[in-house]
Design goal:
Blueprint: H1 15-37, H2 46-59, H3 65-222, H4 224-229, H5 232-254, E1 267-273, E2 279-286, H6 291-304, H7 309-316, H8 318-324, E3 327-332
Antiparallel strand pairs: 1-2, 1-3
Helix pairs in contact: 1-2, 1-3, 3-5, 5-6, 7-8
Length: 339
């Protein structure tokens, strides 16, 4: 027989297996106790168990069904513990992920709240700014409207004042023009009346002078006896004096005395005349020393044009006319021309 097949000694037939079984049970109980008491936080006891098992196996390499059962239970326990550890790790990881997700959600919510709060602040600020801008725009609009109203009122007032001034000036001008027209008309009437009166007086005087000269000439011509007795020189002087006055009267009516004329000036002119009384020429024989005065006298004689009375003289006494008035020199002085 081999030693392995030999029966064990009597004293040790139950001691070895029993001790092994008790040791295994104690290990299993200890492992179960540790597993159930601190499942979330497993202690690394596996090396101890393995060491014990190795020691036990080293002490007794022989196994029994009981030992196998105990070993299977230990393995199952170890598997359960490992599964519990994995589950705990998963739970811890899930819890960590949940907490991280909750933290992230919380942070996102806080960020959203902050963003919403900031947006609300911006919105309120924008609304306030918009309200202030609208208020300012409304105030500006009212100010512009008031300024426009005041400007329009001022412009209307200014225009009304200008219109009033213009109308007053026009009315004053109209009244002044009417007054000037009235005065001018009155002056024209007065002057016309004076001119008519003066002309009537001049006409009456001229007619009286003409009548007197005509009567004197008629008397001289009709009084043949006296005409025959009177010397020719005396008759010529009388007739010449009468007709010289007539020429001066005609010239005085046409003369417009120049501003340079003054008393003491004397101009002698030669007048040429036809028997019809038409003046054909007038020249200055002796100047007064003032060309303007001389020319005014010449122009006045030319403006007379014709003296009808000389036509009658030339008919009644052609010899006297030819001798005295074909060419006649006369002297003109400013003081002698106020007829």
């Amino acid at each position: 027989m081999n030693r392995r097949d030999a029966p064990p000694p009597p004293g040790n037939s139950l001691g070895g297996p029993l001790l092994k079984s008790i040791g295994l049970h104690l290990v299993v109980i200890l492992m179960l106790f540790v597993s159930f008491t601190s499942a979330p936080e497993f202690e690394p006891a596996r090396p101890i168990v393995q060491a014990t098992l190795v020691q036990l196996n080293a002490q007794s390499p022989a196994t029994t069904p009981t030992d196998q059962r105990i070993a299977g239970e230990a393995e199952r326990t170890a598997a359960k513990r490992h599964e519990a550890e994995e589950l705990a790790k998963q739970r811890q990881q899930q819890e960590a992920e949940r907490k991280a997700a909750e933290q992230k959600v919380a942070e996102q919510a806080a960020q959203q709240r902050e963003q919403a709060a900031a947006a609300e602040v911006r919105k309120k600020a924008e609304e306030q700014k918009k309200a202030e801008e609208q208020k300012k725009a409304e105030e500006q609009r009212k100010a512009n409207a008031e300024a426009a109203r005041l400007k329009a009122a001022e412009e209307a007032k200014r225009k009304a004042e200008e219109d009033a001034k213009r109308k007053a000036a026009e009315e004053s001008k109209r009244k002044a023009e009417e007054e000037a027209k009235r005065k001018a008309a009155e002056e024209a009437r007065r002057k016309a009346a004076e001119d008519a009166k003066r002309k009537a007086a001049e006409d009456a005087q001229r007619k009286a002078q003409e009548d007197a000269r005509a009567r004197a000439l008629a008397e001289l011509l009709a009084d043949e006896t006296q005409y025959q007795r009177a010397p020719a020189e005396q008759f010529g002087e009388q007739v010449a004096a009468s007709y010289d006055d007539l020429i001066r009267r005609y010239v005085s009516e046409q003369w417009r005395r120049p501003p340079t004329a003054r008393n003491g000036m004397v101009v002698r002119v030669r007048i040429s005349m036809l028997p019809t009384g038409q003046i054909t020429d007038v020249v200055v024989v002796r100047s007064s020393g003032d060309a303007g005065f001389d020319q005014s006298a010449v122009q006045a004689v030319r403006n007379v044009g014709r003296i009808p009375e000389f036509q009658q003289l030339s008919r009644d006494d052609p010899a006297a006319f030819n001798r005295l008035y074909r060419q006649r020199e006369l002297v003109f002085k400013p003081e002698d021309l106020d007829f």
